[in-house]
Design brief:
452 residues; mainly alpha; 22 helices; 70% helix
Length: 452
């Protein structure tokens, strides 16, 4: 089993999973479109098999991210996934097996040693109190409200605590966790870029007939994952080879082709922040970063001046009332919801705004921005708790000055940026991803000696 576990923790395993995923989306027309929900289920089950084979939970990260990458590509998938409820006992068995079989590996941590425990706990309490005082008992105990409140609150805290006891030097079949983590996220970024280009390939005739952005419903989720992953390309460009910058550059191309306004604006901001930071700190490649920036500005100018019609879809959506009245309406509604219950807000499971945002079955009626989501759903309690958590996270990173910690910090900033116009940190999957990154940073990166 040692060799199996070492393979699962290796680059070869990630490459194999990427190749399988890439082949599948290339032949999905032959298999019957769409197959994405089947692949997300398949990669999900792979995660649970890995849970039984190895005591290293990091080995589950790449297939989990690929499963999410398939999941986001299938629209209105609630009914399709309900057909797979029979798999829940297998999931429970795999989790229980892992807990029992590898229980000796778990290192019980003192809460006082976990820097982010109390900030996450504060956010968890605010999340569970959301809607108290205005929600009826049936509304509060609905599966939509409770499942999401627990996942965004206590479950995240539990995941943080458990993972903190399972990760650390010598525990993950890894000599360099920073490099391993970077390669996992780069693998997922390359897959998403490939998926976007493959989508254009499938609809090439339509694109050629009238060159413009080809919108697809999973654009915002794809851009969120790409923004989480982008800093790791810079990290590897500095540490290993500048050629890794190609992934960051292609991510920017993917932002443009996706048609996501949030991805286009905040992806560009994140890229600019990363260029400035690494040009300042990575002296060996400074001229290359500045060269990439110059070429990027020139390319953007050419596209906007000579080929602006290619961006007509995205640019029109910035000023279209039809595209923006819902978001503006939800911002206004968030203030009304706050005033209706200032202390604890309306709760995350509140359905009263579905006239503006007719969310799908099983999905929250998001305000589509993290700030109104906090005050509208959680009130003053949420504002205090999430403000405290944000400040604690910033301090957490300011005390760690390694390249690995900086890459995770910029990944966190990328998620926060895209969350200003999309659910982001209020989507359980992305919150768990960033929590995993916090844990690995905390367990593998010590504080700077000067701060002790």
């Amino acid at each position: 089993m040692q060799k199996v576990r070492e393979f699962l923790a290796s680059d070869k395993a990630n490459i194999l999973m990427f190749v399988i995923a890439a082949v599948i989306i290339c032949i999905d027309q032959m298999l019957g479109t769409p197959v994405y929900y089947g692949l997300s289920i398949g990669y999900g089950f792979l995660c649970f098999i890995i849970l039984m084979l190895t005591d290293d939970l990091v080995s589950v990260l790449c297939p989990s991210l690929l499963a999410i990458s398939f999941f986001i590509q299938y629209k209105n998938s609630y009914d399709a996934y309900m057909h797979y409820l029979w798999g829940i006992p297998f999931i429970v068995f795999a989790v229980l097996f892992h807990i029992i079989a590898y229980r000796k590996r778990f290192e019980r941590k003192k809460i006082s040693d976990l820097e982010l425990f109390w900030p996450i706990a504060a956010a968890s309490v605010a999340m569970m109190l959301g809607g108290v005082g205005i929600m009826t008992f049936s509304e509060y105990t609905s599966s939509l409200n409770l499942v999401n409140a627990i996942m965004l609150g206590p479950a995240t805290l539990l995941i943080y605590y458990i993972l903190s006891g399972l990760n650390g030097p010598g525990k993950n079949y890894t000599d360099d966790m920073g490099e391993r983590l970077a390669k996992i996220f780069i693998t997922v970024a390359v897959f998403l870029i490939f998926a976007i280009f493959e989508y254009y390939g499938e609809h090439w005739a339509k694109f050629i007939a009238k060159p413009n952005i080809l919108p697809f419903q999973w654009r915002n989720n794809a851009c969120t994952l790409l923004m989480i992953a982008m800093p790791f390309s810079f990290y590897m460009a500095k540490k290993k080879h500048f050629a890794y910058m190609a992934v960051a550059v292609m991510s920017c191309v993917a932002f443009v082709l996706s048609g996501s306004r949030g991805g286009l604006v905040f992806g560009a901001i994140e890229f600019l922040i990363l260029i400035i930071y690494y040009a300042k700190t990575d002296k060996n490649h400074r001229k290359y970063y500045l060269g990439v920036l110059g070429l990027g500005v020139a390319a953007a100018a050419v596209v906007l001046i000579k080929y602006s019609s290619l961006l007509a879809y995205t640019l029109d959506r910035f000023t279209s009332y039809k595209e923006n009245f819902r978001r503006l309406g939800l911002w206004k509604r968030s203030v009304e919801d706050f005033l209706a219950n200032p202390l604890f807000g309306r709760g995350v499971g509140y359905k009263g705004n579905r006239d503006l945002h007719p969310s799908k079955i099983g999905s929250l009626c998001w305000y589509h921005s993290s700030l109104p989501q906090i005050w509208g759903s959680l009130g003053i309690a949420g504002m205090l708790a999430y403000g405290y958590q944000f400040i604690a996270r910033i301090k957490f990173f300011m005390r760690r000055h390694t390249d690995e910690a900086r890459a995770v910090f910029f990944s966190f900033i990328g998620l926060e940026l895209i969350s200003l116009v999309n659910p982001g940190i209020f989507a359980p999957a992305y919150l768990i991803i960033i929590t995993i990154l916090f844990v690995i940073t905390e367990q593998y990166t010590k504080e700077a000696p000067s701060t002790r």
